[in-house]
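S.,

Sequence below, as promised.
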Amino acid sequence: MGTLPEMYRIALSPFQAHSPGVQSVVRYLAPQGFVADQLCLIGTPTVIGPLATGLDPELRQLIGELAIVSAVDAHLPIVASAGLITDVLLRQRSWLFSPAAASLRPHLEGGEVILAINAMDHDQFVTAARLLLRHGSGSVLTEIFNWPTLPRGGSAGGK
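The prediction came back faster than expected:
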């Protein structure tokens, strides 16, 4: 994982698990300067697991290493691509289980996946949001926040 950003600009949208939408978005992002660490696929293990066999190589790396995302009020097991978005937004901030993300939970419960994109600047953020609106199966949610920069040797222990 590269340098950690000071500002996180994350756009998220649900996709039908077997639709070409996620693959279309990922194919378009690479030539625009996005890298794999900026993407995260979120879903249930029963939905994401079988996706590996039918995915393009660009997407296989998104589910090559999955992390368990847990929350006290979650009645559905959720996994996500291991990486920055999972560590900061989903684990430390528990955003997926907050009221702000309530509209995404029915999509996960219905067998859809969520693609999250962390934009490094405003232009990337606009590009990501437009692609998610065009190809996703629901609305686009955004979360923009600053993460405290830690001195060397420090650790991020949550909010």
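The two ends are 21 Å apart (CA to CA).

Coffee later?
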